[in-house]
Task: structure prediction
Amino acid sequence: MAKNWAIVVGINEYENIGHLKYANRDAEAMAALFRRDGFDRVFCFADGLEIPKERDQKSTQPRLTDLLSFLHDRFDLTDRAGNPLPKPLSTGDNLWFFFSGHGKRIGDRDCLLPQDYNPRLAYPETWITVDFVRESLLRSGADNVILLLDACRTEGDKADGMGIGDGQPGTVTIFSCERSKPAYEIDALRHGAFTAALLEGLAMPKSDKNCATVQRLDQHLRDRVPQLCQQHPEKPIQTPNTMVDPGQKWYFLLLPKVATAQDTMALRSEARGAELDENYDLAEQLWFRCGAVSGDRSDFDGYARVQRKKEGRSTIPNQPQRQTTSPIDARSTTQPQPPKSTSPPAKPALPTFAFHSVTLDATGKQTVRKPGTAIYFQKDLGNGVTLDMVKITGSSFQMGARKGEEGASDDEFPQHPVTVKDFWMGKFAVTQEQWKAIAHPSNKVNLDLKESPAHCQGKNLPIEQVSWHEAKEFCDRLSKKTGRTFALPTEAQWEYACRAGTATPFHFGETITTNVANFRGTDWEFNGTTYPGNYAKAPKGKYCEKIMSVDSFDSNAFGLYNMHGNVWEWCLDPYHSNYDGAPKDDRIWDASNDSGSNLRLMRGGSWGLNPGHCRSAARGHCDPMLQNYGIGFRVVCLPSRGLS
Result:
């Protein structure tokens, strides 16, 4: 069972600078909330309150020496000989730090001001750097360190606000306001606006709007704090700001007790992403957290797999620990040099690219635009034309539509578990420029190809007007030219890649809008049936009546673009009318085509169809000879020894 510790600081009556009204009340309420939630330890420091102490807590005063002594004794764990002692927390544990009081930027350092801070003293300094707090908390062994800082972020005296600093590596840092802006206490609430909203968010019950994840708590605070300021117009608008490092922690589970299955699915996607990036320390933490919440064996398998990968690097010399800085000075120091290695030089790492993925709520409103990175390799097709292939780390997922999913067809059932191995997939659908580079007659394998068959011309537009047989010929030519094995994706590979760790109808969430994908966003009457331009609770959108470039819109969480809409994409499999008897892995279903079907699968929907056809589970099927201006494809590549 994961442990939860909290450190809560609230200071009203400063000895040498202006007083606050409700900072200690903020701390008292936060400490009470943590205790109600069953936190293992809650260490509270506040002035003017009767505060219960933890059994081994020496003081509850928020003075400099009390705070420094606590952080040192609790987390700087060495014996008299300098040997490390066991850490109090470990993987899967949470350590929260809440501060309500004055903060200030002193020189180029971000500092928290204890009760006895004295601005007239240059030496000895009477502040504590935020960096020191962060480093102290990270030494606890907890992999989830959360800083909640209710203080101004501007320079100057308290009347203008005092700067509290920027985000800190290795932590989730949630600020009460944007940089260079002040934060406010509201008399009617008897709290800071930020703390009042924070208390609401952390107390929400289990639901699809809970604040179990960093992303959802951030969304709640960014909505609620400005609302509170508007309800009490004596204060200007204040907007909180969240900084997450590393970016994968946007979906970290802060409150596992109220987490939903969807929350766990998002976290699982981040675990896969961290493993894909070979960030094994983070991947280990994320897989452990997934397993602790879900109890799913596949999550614990992911945790064990990452541990094995880490052990495979055991021959690499350990890097020396980074020298910590003084809590008061925090000036730069000379870092020790790593020992010279006698091991063979490591293979150069494959490149990565950065992207953003978008999440929508049930009404189609964007809730987050999250940064990410993915590993890829690039193939030169000649004349400056390249093909980017993104690494997709395999795992298990539920293939097909959920029961009751709007727009689902009979051929999308029954939903069933499928295990997918690692593979590489085209970052984009194959473009007309890439097609032309391979379609030259000199590259022929089996079939002749037109060099410019597309109905709508543009080098960065997806190729269309190509049959399934022609798309397969392209893959055969590409394999011959590059020496790698390229193919159309199997249906299981395509759906797994499209979902990118999600279980919702779209990788965006429960719905889709024309702000994030290219499809027919207006109602369409065809053969007496009206097909709606909106999906579920999202609004109707626009209808562009044309194909867009392959890099339009944001990608999914794997770094793949336009998996929903724009053009249908051919898959390798023949069509089956349902999933009865479907493989439980990512192989082609009936490679010999014993199904008796002459039809081939397509996935993703297109620019001319309504949103229901664009769902992750939606299946299209056509004659493999068909050439249509709404059908294109993307390629996959199987791992090789040098790129696995």
Observations:
- The chain has eleven helices and 25 strands.
- The two ends are 35 Å apart (CA to CA).
- Residues 490 and 587 are 7 Å apart (CA to CA).
